[in-house]
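Example record for the data management plan.
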Amino acid sequence: RASLSVVCENAEEKACVDSQIRILARASYSSPPVHGSRIVERILSDPALTAQWKSEVKEMSTRIMDMRDLLKSSLKEQGSELNWEHITNQIGMF
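Corresponding structural encoding:
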């Protein structure tokens, strides 16, 4: 993470600085670094790494489902009479 602070003399200077920062930020977002795609390429081109990755994804997915089940049952144990099915019916991380 990073932070940038700029002190400007006036509103006109601030507008110019804002414009330049937006240009820099857009270039950064529009041209992401290549290391992410290189990691994917490395994992998917090696059968052992691909198998490890799939195993880890399955493990993470199972843990998420288990935690949702635990949350739902804990809410019921605490006396909640609401319908919590949406917690366990949800698919995905979010």
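Summary line stored alongside the record: The CA atoms of residues 3 and 21 lie 12 Å apart.
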